[in-house]
Predict the structure.
Amino acid sequence: MNTALPSKHHYVDPAPFDPGKTEPVGAESESFYRASSWQLMWWKFRRHKVAVAAAFVLLAFYLLVPFVEIVAPYNQTKRHGDFLYAPPQAVHLMHEGRFVGPHTYSYNYSFDLESFRRVYTPDKSKPQPIRFLCRGDAYQFWGLWEMNFHLVCPPEGGTMFLLGTDRLGRDLLSRIIYGARISLTIGIVGIAVSFALGLFFGGLAGYLGGWVDHVIQRMIEILRSLPELPLWLALSAALPANWSPILVFFGITIILGLLDWPGLARAVRSKLLSLREEDFVKAAELMGASKQRIIARHLIPNFMSHLIASATLSIPSMILGETALSFLGLGLRPPVTSWGVLLNEAQNLAAVQLHPWLLFPMVPVVIVVLAFNFMGDGLRDAADPYH
Amino acid sequence: MIRFLLRRFVTMAVTLLIISALVFFIIKLPPGDFLSNQIAELRAQGESASIAKAEFLIKQYGLDKPAWQQYLVWIGVMPGPNGFSGLLQGDWGWSFEYDKPVVDVIGDALWLTLLVNLAVVIFIHVVSIPIAIYSATRQYSVGDYLATFIGYIGLATPSFLLALIMLYYMNRWFGISIGGLYDAQYAGEPWTWAKTQSLLSHLVVPTVVIGLGGTAAMIRRMRANLLDELGKQYYVTAKAKGLDPTRALLKYPFRMSLNPFIADIGNLLPHLVSGSVLVSLVLSLPTVGPILLSALKSQDQFLAGFILMFVALLTVVGMLISDLLLAWLDPRIRMGGGR
């Protein structure tokens, strides 16, 4: 018994003690310990090479959005009556063994009476150089200024359908570029709606608790147990047919957002509940921080990163949802151009068989969705920099 | 166990009730309904005989009453013009567009929808479990990367486009005919072995297409679960004590990782049903999908409402089954009485 007792006089070394000496802190770990959590997240995200690459891809896509008119070689509504369903034209650099710069060859049109198909054969005799930084189709830039400046223009007197044309002879590449504007913004606007709803309901449930929490939780469960697509279909069938395309756009966006929030609300709620128990919150409480300060300075920054990550991961489902609805003819309607609207033309097997290039709008959809998934994965890993 | 079952059944009933209200509300959202649209059209053409019929139907189905009364009559808790006859009594209503009872319009489609969804669930499990085990036990191998990559593609490709492309190539390479669930010659024929065979061969494309996204998600989750378990000490101990590696893997970590896997069926089902509706439209499968779309477009309210209720029921029952399986597998949930 007496051996276990500590001695009454315990010994304290009078010499000064420097903790850094016994366990030296290098410059690297020093900066690690001093870094803010946002900085840590950035470092962690940067290490995720695929996610960074995906972020750059998305940046490129979104930079395109305000300037589609300039980037697209043609106007989206410009019809070429002589080139209905023209296949993609190739860009050549060499003409008869001689370098002449990027050029196309004009199409010779004939109609195959046996298979009833239009046949386009390139006429290789005369190269038609593509023009850069040039004047082409006129457009209204941002609906304000009359302009006709393009990055790339079709050759003088020639054509440049890099991805072919559709049934009205409109250039598919230009339409895809125009479609990016709608398809990419619909994901962002939709997620904003769903984010606001999710934050509101999740915050209410997590903060108030009790019966409010109970009701909201049941609501979330019910909404999550419903198959999305039939509901999307039903809701978008409910949009009045006489709405203008812009109203329909907002209607569809709100529908997509309305059914997406439960996931986010659930994340907010569980994060709020679990963060309340964390040591740093207790520490802040013990140090006498006010409730507002704890919520604003400690809780929100902590779960914001998680929310941004999960929001990023649910943007793809919005984009795919819009594509699916428009594909079925219940979403956006022409003259609004989105990738889903473009795919609507590739609805039947004849399209796949005769005009496979009409399926091309699928490529940007897949790229954007993949990029959002990769970036979201990286963000999610980075959102927890201390683990 | 009985208390657990009871509680789950009561929750399910309440959920379905709320869903039915939601469904009815959504269907009633667009202004007007099928019959009044039709009457307006007939008036314009000056056909009085058909108008009388339409007005009779309006009376018959109580469409002149306020919406909340229509709802109560529809689900069968309030007596309508012909007594209690709603969903609860097994009367699914009348399809105005087809001019037939809803039962006759979608009778076969219901079974085929069930069949397609069941096939997809089985496909997802059969494919994703072995791949996930392979991926987790050989982490960062070429096969693992390949599985992950295909999984990402599966998540990112819109299923309806995949359906179109697969349909085209399956037909071109294997001669599987296009669209439908069986060859045209079997339509309306009694079920024979040949018809079943034709059905099975037609089922391949839709199953793969609908299941791909779900399979990708399952592989990802299962792989993560399994990796968590594989790092734990009990597994290392079991291997160190000389337990056969396959046995050690399948008996302990695998079983542990199955738990969240089954719980996930509930999350997966709504997506599957969504996917099957969309893919059915593209592949023109005789499931409820195409009928739903046309019913929604023409505001055929009882038909659309019933189909929406049916898909909701499908997912809710699926979730119930997954919960029961989970309770059977994991005593902690059974004893704790729900999550």
About this structure: Residues 193-230 of chain B form the longest helix (38 residues).
